[in-house]
Hints:
This protein is mainly alpha-helical. Helix content is 65%, strand content 1%. A two-stranded antiparallel sheet has the order 1-2.
Amino acid sequence: MTDTANTASPQIPGRRIEVLDLARGLALLAMASYHFSWDIEQFGYLDHGTTTHGLFKVYARSIAGGFLFLAGVSLMLAHSTGIRLQPFLKRLGMVAGAAALITLVTFFATPDTFIYFGILHAIAASSVIGLAFLRLPAVVTVLAGIGCIVLPLVFRADMFNPVWLHWVGLSTVPPRSNDYVPLMPWLGPFLIGMGAAKLSIATKFTERLANVKTGDNRLAGITRYFGRHSLAFYLLHQPVLLTLVWTTSQLAPPRPVDPLPGFVAECEAGCADGNSAEFCSRFCLCVTDELISQGMFDGFMAGEITPESDARIPAVAEQCTAASQMAAPE
């Protein structure tokens, strides 16, 4: 999402493309609105699981897909005539460095759900992979992108379950992370963006797009400004939002909530990628029952027990996965 969303400046010689700056700025504001909803859920102002289901889930995935699509467009626009190595490495270093910072901060803040492969990691990795597609025909790049989206829907394997392979996106056990954006399927919109940009360059659509003005009013100007400085916006918006929500919680605390429905909802949301609703319902009910019966539920919810610190957690996940698969209707 950042100069993230740009591994490259969205411009043609001598001119920025205002429409792309505006689109990126709008995507950032949409992201901030979703994160604000997520924040107030974490503080107890919304029922747990609200932002991981239904329209909220669609909204979040649309935002992530939009950022990656724009990142692919920007990479192609910047390097369509040849890889400009120094600018590419500079931007890649900024994105990868910001991704590492996010991982470090969240590891200490939320160790059981820290971000080890989020949107920034995905954009950095996709940018490197995208270099191999710069010279390929647009249709090949788009088809490869579609393939990345379809692959995790039809294929997953236990060999991708180790934590160090979760970034691929083909594991059968849903990982725990506050922002999980693996290459499969999210490399897909990035490559589709590259293909769309290549086609736009060939048809001179980008030149016409560069002539489109997005308005001189203050709101449009601020939105474009955010789009041009998206990395800074991404890094700063959550601390600002969390400070606002925390301050509000001190002045007007939320009502206490039962953690059980939220745990089940979050479990089902994390399970939904590549699994049926029936399987996820059985799996999450099994996990909940096992955690409660073994006296681990409260400790798990409090972060005192994690899959890394207690071998019983992954054992429960494996047991419930097998039981849920066996219970599947013929």
